Amino acid sequence: MEAAERARPAAVALEGVGRSYPRRGGGPVAALEGLSLQVGDGEVVGVVGPSGCGKTTLLELVCGLQAPDAGRVEARPAVLMPQRDGLLPWLGALDNAALALRVTGAGREEARAAARPLFATFGLEGFEAARPGALSAGMRQRVAFLRTLLAGKPVLCLDEPFGALDALTRAGMQAWLAEALAREARTVLVVTHDVEEALVLADRVAILSPRPGRVVAELDVDSPHPRRRTDPALGALRERALEALGEAVGT
What we know:
CATH topology of the largest domain: Rossmann fold
Number of domains: 2
CATH superfamily of the largest domain: P-loop containing nucleotide triphosphate hydrolases
Strand content: 25-35%
Helix content: 25-40%
Distance between the termini: 27 Å
CATH architecture of the largest domain: 3-Layer(aba) Sandwich
Largest sheet: 6 strands, mixed
Number of strands: 9
Strand order of the largest sheet: 5-6-7-3-8-9
Number of helices: 9
């Protein structure tokens, strides 16, 4: 990590974190063990690791939805965008996005008024009344991301935000999200199985070991935005990330 990045105050700090879950008919399953990670204020960090290594658990700990069994978790207020968009099928896109404000006590018209101006910015203008069933998968994810932003938290935790999308839509959404994150300038933890996706989006990539997850490598991504998966500058980082993953899983 560059010296300037190290100087950033930490928005998220995990130190020696462990988290286990009970298992029927057996001992507990350790999801995380000895995990340490810091995320600077305004930094975007991608978290990559094999399935089952505790990536979602990590995000839920940061958001205060779980408590660690061991270690320390400190974070500024955080909001989770889960893998599924979670849009309510009986509400239009505007009201789905505005739900983040309704749950804090805002009235319907007040919440709509706050959400409506952002629809043009996020490429959703004209679809305010459309219900989720009438939206493309990419548009649904934009509504879900807008709802996450409207929660007003300084830390965003994105859990496989494009995991359910086809490859073409996913590539377009990666570019869109990179631009959106640059505009917002918030602290972001984004979990993904896709090394290239992490390199396109993040300032730094943390590689996790198989379960129980711990950080085994960190890679700085110094290339300027906008980035593409095919950018030559990302090729060497991709190889380093894949090598670190291979070493972590013993291949």
